[in-house]
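RECORD TYPE: protein structure
NAME: E3 ubiquitin-protein ligase TRIM58-like
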Amino acid sequence: MVATPTTAKSSGPRFRRASEELREASGAGMAFSVGDPVERLQEEVSCSICLEYLRDPVTIECGHNFCQACISNYCERGAGSVAQVALCPQCRAGFLLSSSRPNKQLANIVEGIEQLALRPSRGPGEVLCERHGKKLRLFCQDDGEPICLVCDKSREHRAHTVLPIEEAAHEYKIKLREAVDVLRKVLGEASKLEAQEAEKTAQWKEKVEERRALIVSGYERRRQAMAEEEQLLLRQLQDEAQETLKKLQVNWAFLLGQCTRLRDLISEMEQKCQQPAASLLKDVKVALTRSVPYNLLLLLFSRLVVSDSVTPWTRAHQALLSSTASLSLVKLMLVASRTLSHHLVLCRPLLLVPSIFPNIRVFSRESSLLIITITYIAAHLLRNKTCCVNWGLLPRI
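PREDICTED:
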C-alpha cells in the first residue's frame, strides 16, 4: 500500500499538536511522569532501525517513518536492490523504496523536540541514560554498565549479553555482600593484630623504661662508688705523700751527715798526705780502712735498683734512699755482726738476705753478694772499736 498525501497530512497535525502541548507544558514548568506523552512522543520520532531520532525522515507506503539512510540500507540488505519490493520493519507490509516520500513536517517536529531537550520526569534517585534520556532497564555484562532499551538495540550492544537491571542488581548485591563478609573477617583479624601490636608496643615501652632506670641507677651507684674510691685514694695519696716527704727529709739529713763525715775524712786524708813520711805512714792503714766501707756503699747504692713493675709510690718506699733502707743500713750491719758468724755468711748468703733486708723486694745475685760483703766487713770492723768510731758506726766517747 502506497502512502497517500492524506496520510502524511493527517500525521502532520497530530505531531504538531503534540509538540505544541509539550511546549506549553515545558513553558509552564510541568513535570512529566513515566506515563506522560513525552516518552511516547520520543518513541514516535525515533527510527525503529537505528533507535535514534529520525534523520531526514521518509514515509513509506504503510505510513511508518524511518531515516532515509536506514531504510535504504535495509532495502539493500533485505531485498538485494532498492528497486525490489521490501517488507516494512514494523508491520511487514510490502513497499517500494521509490514510493517513499520525505516528511518535512516530521523533521521539523524532531528538530523542535531536540531543541526543547525534553526528558521524562525521573523519580528520586533515578538515573537516566545520558545518551537517549531513557530509563536504565538493562545491564550489559560485557561492558559492565546499565543501559536503556534503545542502547540494547544499537549496534554497540547488539551482540552483548544483557540482563534485566533488577536481576543484575540482585546478583551483584549477593556478590557485594559476600565480598563485605570476607572484608569483615579480614577487618576482624586486622583488629586483633592491631590490638596485639598495641599491647606489645606498651610492653616494650615499659621494658625500655625499666632498662633505662636500671642503667641510670647502676651508673649512679658506680659514680658514687668511684667518687668514694677517688676520695679514698686521694686521702691515701696525701698520707703517703706526707709520710714519704718526712722520710725524704730524714734521708736528706742522713745524707747531709754522711757528706759532712766524708768531707772531714777527705780533709784528714788530704792533711795526712801533706805530712812528712814518718807521720804519713803512722796509722795509714787505719785511714785507708775508713774509706773502704764508703766505696762499698757507693757501689751498693748504684747496683740496688728496684723493678719497674713496682708502682711509683711503692718504689719510693722501697728505694735505698728511703728510711727503711738507708737509715737502718748501719743498724742492720750491727745486728748482723751480733747474729751472724763467718761460717753462716759464707754458706747461706742468699737465704739470709731477705730476712736481713725485709723491705727490699727485688734482689739480684750480685746485689745480694754486695750486701753480704758489707755485712761481713762490718762484722770484722766491729772488733776494733776505734775503727768503728772513725767510720761512724759508733759514737765518739
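COMMENT: The CA atoms of residues 57 and 107 lie 6 Å apart.
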